[in-house]
Amino acid sequence: MTYIRTIPTRSLILAGMLMALLFSALNCQKKGVIRIRDKVLQIEIADDAAERSRGLMFRKELGRDKGMVFDFKQDQIVSFWMKNTFIPLSIAFLDTNFCIAQIEDMSPLDEENLHRSGIPVRYCIEVNRGWFERNGIKVGDRVEGLQ
């Protein structure tokens, strides 16, 4: 006689809930909304070393009016590259007054060019390449919604 052990339904539900929680923790970052001039940008917030290192790597697309804010917790000179990043991006470096100090365009999978802040910054914003220009956003514009 073969003995088959069944798994109680409650255990399956618990395992499913744990898997869903783990999946969301790995793939869902903190989110928010910022405003630049009259434009609203839905953002993901990368505010720890692992999230900042991963950034937008391995993604195939970034939605319209969406982006990622990198919070370095204190002002510092920072550099970005496009290793394993498939989306063409623009990056804005913000000064201590939350104003855009510099905007650069970045090409997908470019591991040779570093995009370095010209001044110490706490925040950087990555968006689809050309988003700042298309929305009339330029150096000197203030970003609202960061702290």
Please tell me about this protein's structure.
The chain is α+β, with helices and mostly antiparallel strands and 147 residues long. The protein has a single domain (29-144), classed as Jelly Rolls (Sandwich), CATH 2.60.120.1140. The protein is built from 3 helices and 9 strands, in the order H-E-E-H-E-E-E-E-E-E-H-E. It has helices at residues 9-27, 49-54, 131-134, and strands at 30-36, 39-46, 66-76, 79-80, 89-94, 100-106, 115-116, 121-128, 143-144.
Pick out its properties.
two-stranded antiparallel ribbon, 147 residues, alpha+beta, single chain, 7-stranded mixed β-sheet, Jelly Rolls, globular
Number of domains: 1
Which parts are unreliable, with pLDDT below 50 for 5 consecutive residues or more?
17-27
Structural class: alpha+beta
Average per-residue pLDDT, rounded, comes to 88
Under CATH, the topology can be stated as Jelly Rolls
Summary, kept brief:
This protein has helices at 9-27, 49-54, 131-134, and strands spanning 30-36, 39-46, 66-76, 79-80, 89-94, 100-106, 115-116, 121-128, 143-144.
How are the secondary structure elements laid out?
Elements: H1 9-27, E1 30-36, E2 39-46, H2 49-54, E3 66-76, E4 79-80, E5 89-94, E6 100-106, E7 115-116, E8 121-128, H3 131-134, E9 143-144
